[in-house]
């Protein structure tokens, strides 16, 4: 009897899970708020005041908590992903913008742009446990899925710093194109993709020897090259395609992640900034900074299917299954 | 090939703290042992650092007549920017095995910059940040001793230096008058302020600025309906109320465009004109490479870092000098060389892209050595627009809608 009940409960939950689809969370830099979007219905569900100038956002591996950098509050807030109540905050250092959560969800690494530092935070104890000196104006930061590498990009030094997560020390540095912004590992942790805003390029680096595999450049007809300023970059789990937000070119580039050819350019919204996959990787969500909306890209057909007004200066985006 | 900065710092600390208590012969022995140890354990550390020496050349200025007590006289405009650039270059250099030295030469008021250049700079420095006026700049550029130098001009606005008086050993880091006037004209065209009342001061620089404005008016199809030279007093207590009202009783116009580079009367115009009209040019809404109201594209970080270092706002010459030093740093890092020809070739190549915190990659125009850059249009307490204004198109880069494009340039570089 009990077994039967739990089985039906599980089934019911599964159905519920499919009916109540994923939620997309977008930080709104100028509204000091978080937008909650139902991407299947294509609707903005609600907007929640969250703190001063929210930018970077991450979700815990168990999807219970959201971490949001509220830059002008000089902290990273811990938010309950169901009730949206603030349940704590982390010592991020001054003006936090971007940060990375490790796969286990117990470490957060924050870029402290003004001080040329990366701060390592023990999430459980809400304590900063180390500061790592990096190049000038660190911004993009990521942890490899196998937790081997923490990589930080310095915008002015034009370098990515390879930091051993066991020792929290830099073991290698790779010079990249001017003003590196976002970093993304492939799911197998073998490649690091780095976008460079000023050179209008994406560099693919080999994680084993930290050397360049390929530099990808973009061309958009009718747009001069200095408007092509890549920011967000994501690669699908099978490494079939990578997607790059081209900033003020208002477009997302679709790249064949095996041949590194640019296959398609999709028009989204103004100053497209950050990107996130749906959990099944069938859709891609974009934050469009100056048109105050997000776009939904259907990845099977590689077309933009919808844009949803979300609020002023949408910045970061995460998806909760 | 990369050096780990954390380990290097640890070694230096060890040396500083422990060494003084040990006698000299032993110290040498220990040093040698340390070197041996370092070179065997960490091959990277044994590599000698590439040293790049940069001179900063300026001359003391006479304090201008005090027109207002609002703005303090800043005597080290430019120098602080160069110093911040050096800090940034050396942070990168710690990782890449390069070190940048900045040596400043501030010539006294009655001294000769040529003597300083010949005696102290030419033989020791190939890269020179020059914060001097147009005449001094070209005098230096033409010296036989400057033949193998690259001069980074962080002060002049002269269009002639980018045209008929250009020099192949000079790069210009600040927008010239034509770029500024084009930026203003683009904005005025967008606002449909097409009838200008041009008011020019009596200094030669004011006339050059007015010439640039006239060129822009023609370029963008604007009309200068009235043109007047300010010949009244330069004393705020006497002039403002009566003189300006009378002076500005002219035929109808959309906007008063002022050319007063030294700020001798331009500030008095706003709110005092006979008709209610905006003021734009060297006062009112101004065109500048950098401004304290600018915060976008990471500029807020730059403003903060500069203020922490200098204890004041970043001025245009600081920005120019910062960019000059950063450009050199970039070129050295990319070409892995300090050799002048390689550096210069890299700086003028399409591969060079420098971040200037203004939303577009900066590069040098290959035809006149001018830095290709956006121009900020700023009111005293708010940033109004950034030129090129949206909609002004160009086949290569919209940045070339400002100033002299390749086809218009009169610069003919003769190989040195």
Features:
A: 321 residues, mainly beta, four-stranded antiparallel β-sheet, 6% helix, globular, B: alpha/beta, Rossmann fold, seven-stranded mixed β-sheet, 12 helices, 14 strands, disordered N terminus
Quick take:
The complex is a heterodimer of chains A (about 325) and B (about 425). With about 325 residues, chain A is mainly β.
The order of strands across the largest sheet of chain A is 3-2-1-28
Largest sheet of chain A: 4 strands, antiparallel
- The portion of residues assigned to helices of chain B is 25-40%
Q: What letter string, H or E per element, gives the SSE order of chain B?
A: HHHEHEHEHEEHEHEHEEEHHHEEEE
Tally of domains of chain B: 3
What is the number of helices of chain B?
12
Number of helices of chain A: 1
Overall number of strands of chain B: 14
Report on the architecture of this protein:
The complex is a heterodimer of chains A (321) and B (416). Chain A is built from 1 helix and 28 strands. Chain A is globular, with a radius of gyration of 19 Å. Chain A is mostly beta strands. In chain A, the strands form 7 sheets. In chain A, strands 3-2-1-28 form a 4-stranded antiparallel sheet, with no helix packed on it. Chain A has a 4-stranded antiparallel sheet with strand order 4-5-6-7, with no helix packed on it. With 416 residues, chain B is α/β, with parallel strands linked by helices. Chain B has 3 domains: 5-46; 50-168 and 297-369, Response regulator (Rossmann fold, 3-Layer(aba) Sandwich); 178-288, Response regulator (Rossmann fold, 3-Layer(aba) Sandwich), CATH 3.40.50.2300. Chain B contains 12 helices and 14 strands. Residues 1-25 and 27-46 of chain B have low confidence and may be disordered. Chain A binds chain B through residues 113-114, 116, 133, 135-137, 154-159, 161, 169-173, 175, 177-179, 197-200, 224-227, 248, and chain B through 2, 4-6, 88, 91-92, 95-96, 298, 301, 304-305, 326, 330, 333-334, 353-355, 359-361, 394-399.
